[in-house]
Amino acid sequence: MCFFDDYRHDDLAILELREDIPYSVFAQPICIAKNMDLQKLKTWVQATGFGLNYRYSIDNSTIQHPVLRHANMQIFHLPPNVHFFGTENRDEEIGLREGDSGGPGYIEGADLKNVLLGVASTGGGFKAYFASVGKHAKEICHHTGIC
């Protein structure tokens, strides 16, 4: 893809592994959004991350614990001509936290296959913003052959 030294651009990275990852209950294939058609306001997105939770010990020092997190979040922000979308879950007041960047934002497609809509970029509290995979479908196809 391209590199921009500017945080307002996307948080996408493509890695090529030397070996295949064996599928398991923890590692499963996912389809990539081919465009932005599935990104619609009020669409519910599954978000997953492995980030930090903070708590304080008896002596008030901060202890960080990495936690595998999952949240159902609804798209509430779709700026025109921008490469990201915003999600929130005000009902359950859950979301993504520090360290969750890079986690998937996905939906279950009509054929019951999961479709990756975005990659977690930033967030906090009950909001999270995702870099749009559909916006970059052509670049992903060009660099990986996954079209």
From TrEMBL:
Gene Ontology biological-process entries: proteolysis
InterPro entries cross-referenced by the UniProt entry: Peptidase_S1_PA, Peptidase_S1_PA_chymotrypsin, Trypsin_dom
Gene Ontology molecular-function annotations: serine-type endopeptidase activity
Domain Peptidase S1 span(s) in chain numbering: 9-125
Protein name (database record): Peptidase S1 domain-containing protein
